[in-house]
């Protein structure tokens, strides 16, 4: 780099690379620290900390996932696999000259306030590294620390693993597999197991809406995207839920528990294959677990089955271990951030990607990164601190009304949030111009 870095970016996955690109466009020198030996984050199969498995594909369509500045190839399938996505992120880094700004195999251990800026401590292959910067952007993702459930009553003699450690169907061959969870990974792994395992059970404590990847001949997320540009989410919910029920039927039709919440009130679970495997009996639905007894598991309905492999698809904990806990308040997943980006009380500390979206992440981290870059370049200014806090409270109330207590601080509606970030960028530029 031709100038000392003014900004340190933690992570070189999609969020970190988008941040480097936006900072470069704004003329702000930066350096990124990445634990792995390659770029791409969670999409790099086999990289340290990556949860990618061999059959992993996008669960949002290509056109709704790509960066605006770097479209995916038009001849790609609608739902590319992890190899294509990892290559796409590598191409993104090459196209915009980002590789030289990334220090691979460098793990950030500690970030501390230092005068008017920040001191970043990292450990690399040649030992400790310390960098002083004006700002720090946390872009390390939140799918790295498995959330393991509290122990159930009884003793489980079956082998247990978290989906984070799943790599491919060969781990399931010949086993009596119990998959626990209702997210995208649970559905993918249950489908894999249905072809490789002796028997596959899928346990869900609560119902989820399972959405096929295609509806009416189009990628299903494009239909909701078209509605989002015109209608409030409650009306979209009624339309989408009616369409989904009419085309595939209610979840109970497949032996799954009925969802407690309406469609669009939780992260969508997409699978073309799961419903078919359920109707063929190759995956069998079960309710929540009541207790274990050796290789037997009793479910809340009283049914008992024998299993020898339990795969916990129970999500991830959100941890930012290198920051002072005082900066994280009640926890990283409950941290109020202005527009889900800027720390209210620590100037120069921003987060890109600390959210859970109803859609794809790439366009959102790209928009967040542009906001961060404009702030550090001086072309965007935030409102007063009390207005930022009021905006956070209003967003939390709306998110809680929609998503309940399921991480409301982090929840965003893909289309609404993307539009909000565009408005915020324009408003902040006007504020910055007025301040000059």
Automatic annotation (TrEMBL):
<dbReference type="GO" id="GO:0004499">
    <property type="term" value="F:N,N-dimethylaniline monooxygenase activity"/>
</dbReference>
<keyword id="KW-0274">FAD</keyword>
<keyword id="KW-0521">NADP</keyword>
<comment type="similarity">
    <text>Belongs to the FMO family.</text>
</comment>
<keyword id="KW-0560">Oxidoreductase</keyword>
<dbReference type="InterPro" id="IPR050346">
    <property type="entry name" value="FMO-like"/>
</dbReference>
<protein>
    <submittedName>
        <fullName>Predicted flavoprotein CzcO associated with the cation diffusion facilitator CzcD</fullName>
    </submittedName>
</protein>
<keyword id="KW-0285">Flavoprotein</keyword>
<dbReference type="GO" id="GO:0050661">
    <property type="term" value="F:NADP binding"/>
</dbReference>
<dbReference type="InterPro" id="IPR000960">
    <property type="entry name" value="Flavin_mOase"/>
</dbReference>
<dbReference type="GO" id="GO:0050660">
    <property type="term" value="F:flavin adenine dinucleotide binding"/>
</dbReference>
<dbReference type="InterPro" id="IPR036188">
    <property type="entry name" value="FAD/NAD-bd_sf"/>
</dbReference>
<comment type="similarity">
    <text>Belongs to the FAD-binding monooxygenase family.</text>
</comment>
<dbReference type="Pfam" id="PF00743">
    <property type="entry name" value="FMO-like"/>
</dbReference>
<dbReference type="InterPro" id="IPR020946">
    <property type="entry name" value="Flavin_mOase-like"/>
</dbReference>
């Amino acid at each position: 780099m031709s100038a000392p870095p003014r900004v340190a970016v933690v992570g070189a996955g999609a969020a970190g690379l988008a941040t480097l690109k936006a900072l470069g466009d704004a003329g702000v020198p930066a350096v990124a620290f990445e634990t792995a030996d390659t770029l791409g984050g969670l999409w790099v199969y086999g990289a340290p900390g990556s949860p990618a498995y061999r059959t992993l594909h996008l669960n949002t369509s290509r056109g709704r996932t790509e960066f605006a500045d770097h479209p995916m190839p038009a001849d790609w399938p609608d739902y590319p696999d992890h190899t294509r996505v990892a290559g796409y992120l590598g191409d993104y880094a090459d196209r915009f000259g980002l590789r030289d700004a990334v220090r691979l195999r460098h793990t950030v251990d500690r970030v501390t306030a230092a005068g008017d800026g920040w001191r970043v401590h990292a450990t690399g292959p040649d030992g400790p590294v310390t960098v002083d910067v004006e700002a720090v952007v946390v872009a390390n993702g939140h799918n790295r620390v498995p959330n393991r459930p509290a122990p159930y009553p009884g003793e489980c003699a079956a082998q247990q693993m978290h989906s984070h450690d799943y790599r491919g169907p060969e781990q399931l061959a010949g086993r009596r597999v119990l998959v626990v969870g209702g997210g995208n990974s649970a559905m993918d792994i249950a489908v894999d197991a249905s072809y490789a395992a002796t028997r596959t059970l899928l346990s869900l404590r609560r119902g989820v809406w399972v959405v096929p990847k295609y509806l009416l001949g189009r990628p299903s997320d494009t239909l909701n995207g078209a509605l989002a540009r015109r209608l409030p989410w409650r009306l979209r919910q009624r339309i989408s839920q009616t369409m989904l029920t009419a085309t595939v039927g209610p979840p109970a039709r497949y032996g799954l528990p009925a969802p407690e919440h309406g469609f669009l009130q939780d992260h969508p679970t997409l699978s073309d294959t799961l419903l078919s495997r359920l109707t063929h009996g190759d995956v069998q639905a079960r309710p929540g677990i009541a207790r274990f007894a050796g290789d037997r598991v009793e479910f809340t309905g009283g049914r008992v089955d024998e299993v020898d492999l339990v795969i916990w698809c129970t999500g991830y904990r959100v941890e930012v271990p290198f920051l002072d806990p005082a900066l994280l308040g009640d926890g990283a997943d409950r941290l109020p951030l202005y527009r889900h980006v800027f720390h209210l009380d620590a100037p120069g500390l921003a987060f890109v990607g600390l959210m859970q979206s109803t859609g794809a992440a790439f366009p959102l981290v790209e928009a967040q990164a542009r906001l961060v870059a404009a702030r550090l370049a001086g072309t965007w200014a935030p409102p007063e601190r009390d207005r930022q806090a009021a905006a956070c409270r209003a967003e939390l109330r709306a998110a809680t009304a929609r998503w309940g207590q399921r991480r409301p601080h982090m929840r965003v509606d893909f289309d609404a949030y993307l539009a909000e970030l565009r408005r915020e960028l324009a408003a902040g530029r006007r504020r910055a111009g007025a301040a000059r």
